[in-house]
Please model this.
Amino acid sequence: MSARKRVSLTVQPLIVQKFGGTSMGSIERIKSAAARALATQRDGHRVVVIVSAMSGETNRLLQLAKDVAPIPSTREMDALAATGEQVSSALMAIAIQSLGGRARSFTGQQMKILTDSAFTKARIKTIDAGRVLSSVEDGEIAVVAGFQGVDDEGNITTLGRGGSDTSAVAIAAAIQSGLNEKVVCEIYTDVDGVYTTDPNVCPTAKKIERISYEEMLELASLGAKVLQIRSVEMAMKYGVPVHVRSSFSSAPGTMVTGEGALEGVVVTGVAYDKGEARVMLVGVLDKPGVVAQIFGDLARENVSVDMIIQNLPSAGAGDAASRTDVTFTVAKTDLARVRGVIDTVGSNVSALGVRYDEDIVKVSIVGLGMRSHAGVAAKMFRILADEGINIQAISTSEIKVSCLVATKYTELAVRSLHDGFALGAEAREEHGGA
Amino acid sequence: MSARKRVSLTVQPLIVQKFGGTSMGSIERIKSAAARALATQRDGHRVVVIVSAMSGETNRLLQLAKDVAPIPSTREMDALAATGEQVSSALMAIAIQSLGGRARSFTGQQMKILTDSAFTKARIKTIDAGRVLSSVEDGEIAVVAGFQGVDDEGNITTLGRGGSDTSAVAIAAAIQSGLNEKVVCEIYTDVDGVYTTDPNVCPTAKKIERISYEEMLELASLGAKVLQIRSVEMAMKYGVPVHVRSSFSSAPGTMVTGEGALEGVVVTGVAYDKGEARVMLVGVLDKPGVVAQIFGDLARENVSVDMIIQNLPSAGAGDAASRTDVTFTVAKTDLARVRGVIDTVGSNVSALGVRYDEDIVKVSIVGLGMRSHAGVAAKMFRILADEGINIQAISTSEIKVSCLVATKYTELAVRSLHDGFALGAEAREEHGGA
Model:
């Protein structure tokens, strides 16, 4: 009795709900999202809704701009693109009202989401949560146009693709700070959560119930498209719990928090990324400054390098004539620029040869549990070896081990690692018991 | 020589150019409008451009709202509809830039077009011309989203249909006041000016070169759709010269100013309006307060009454039993509500009967010259009589005479008045000489 009483007296947390383009894809879906927001409010939560543009709308607007000029001004592109979310926010407010709720839409400008002036990829500086807070305290559902802000001079800015996730987390953080209480940020998407691996590759992939920010960051950077990296970074920085869940069901999704999975789970997920190419500089002179020159030149060309592996020279280190091999990976889309740099720098550092390989995939295991469990990497190598998969390069971080293998092994590698670390089996048992 | 020198030293006036939905109907048309703005700037003018939404866009947006809810909130309708002009303003700025010009778009909010909070039909209170002025002084073409503003609380408002004309004139007025110099407001539309009458009805109709605000107001209220009444009222109030011209040609259109046509022109145009219905209360008791009661009740039902004609009673005025007939016209669309009111009030004022007639047209002649020329109305009645057209009711103002006639006479009445007042003949002569 007393426990129940205490529950009923507890103030329910404010919930920020972000609906992406798919959730805003049609009038019916907008109404369904509105119904969900309203149901959440009727459960006793204060609700702030963040919306993306209706699916396809941002592309339509940017195509209009490109039809007018091949390279439109970024300031005007932002003024144009921001209308997509403004339309969504008004329609969402209308949908909530039509279901008997009270709602009010806010643009980035009205909400005073202050950003820098880097049009098309602006960064949020400050958010004034006051306006939406007085709206929700007043019993309304505040509906905020995602993806957009305004700079010091009042110019409309956008946060770049996927920016609505960032808007949602940033607004949740601002509200959390303004109210001095925990706020939950729900991200509604067309998948029902974060999976242990790509279900298209591995049918036994299971939904992860809880995952830490760090793991989510690694998975996102490895190509899991559920959440934008920037939004996860921001959630981690401000300690905003993020609940990734499906627009099309009421089942819980994946909770991204500071804590992550239960003790004992060593590997949380298996990811793969076919978007990288391997570059190998053979027989580079092993002397100070050589590696710095190679990667300095690549950085000046704005090429992001992912894995870097430098083998020890076969001769003794420091010998004048000793040589080493330097291998690194870059995005396949950057390969043309990389060739330009390497053609020049390769001879400067007296490399004996250069090899490019696009026929590779990066397969990774991610898990906070690795920190305290020895032998995880060794187990990964063993699993791959047992399948006859040759590992071309290895890179590790505190919570991740990545291996480059030939593209043809993608599915085999992912499935064997997923099974080998018992990710799928656990899933079936847990769900069977629930 | 000295005259030419003086001209070249004169600072060219700032020009506000407003492009309507048709002028913004496609990428090609937007580019063509941009080229015109740029050519105007290259002629030495500072240029401010006001844009409407692309044709069809406002309807598309409002339909979206209606698909979500039968009666959407007007605040949200405005937030939604305002995006149409925001898109146009960004595309126009991009188009000007693509042609080598410099341009910057402004929303109503950025431009600080302060309105009241009457969503969907807001009225402009103040405009801060500072932002566009610093833009044009900087060599840019300032592109302002028409039709929209912002209220004291930062809510987005719209000015109602045709509001972009009002935006243009109001912005021209604000700039005129800010610069303390005359500004010209050019309204680009799909017709090439204001005509002496509807060219579809009367092939000899000619374009009017100059017309006064008062005449334009009468013509607009009589159904000439070229300019919105509110924008003409505002132009008159602030003395803004308005040049109505075609998006598709560089020929001069019609100049709407304080002066109007040359001396000697008595009638400027002939208009007709098929949108009214006639209501006749027969045998109303002729005593004080009766008419006040009828029209008071209509006003409470929000019915606008146009013409009101009360004949003298056939018996001596003031007799207890004397009766009179009261005739008035209302919009046909209001007729259902009028019947409701009259059914009640008719018996209260002891009318002997009520007659409704929808088969009527109001034909009007308009001209500032009437003020100083006697016999204009008489000439109108004579022209109609000569054609065998029976006049059912007459109403006059200082610069207008309107007659109700049967609908079947519309074309005959318009053409005979147009010819009778020599509007077409003059046109051909003037154009022949030009």
In short: The CA atoms of residues 210 and 255 of chain A lie 5 Å apart. Residues 1-9, 426-434 of chain A have pLDDT under 50 and may be disordered. The interface with chain B takes residues 27, 30-31, 61, 64-65, 67-70, 72-73, 75-77, 79-80, 82-83, 86-87, 89-91, 93-95, 97-98, 103-105, 107, 109-110, 154-156 of chain A (CB under 8 Å).
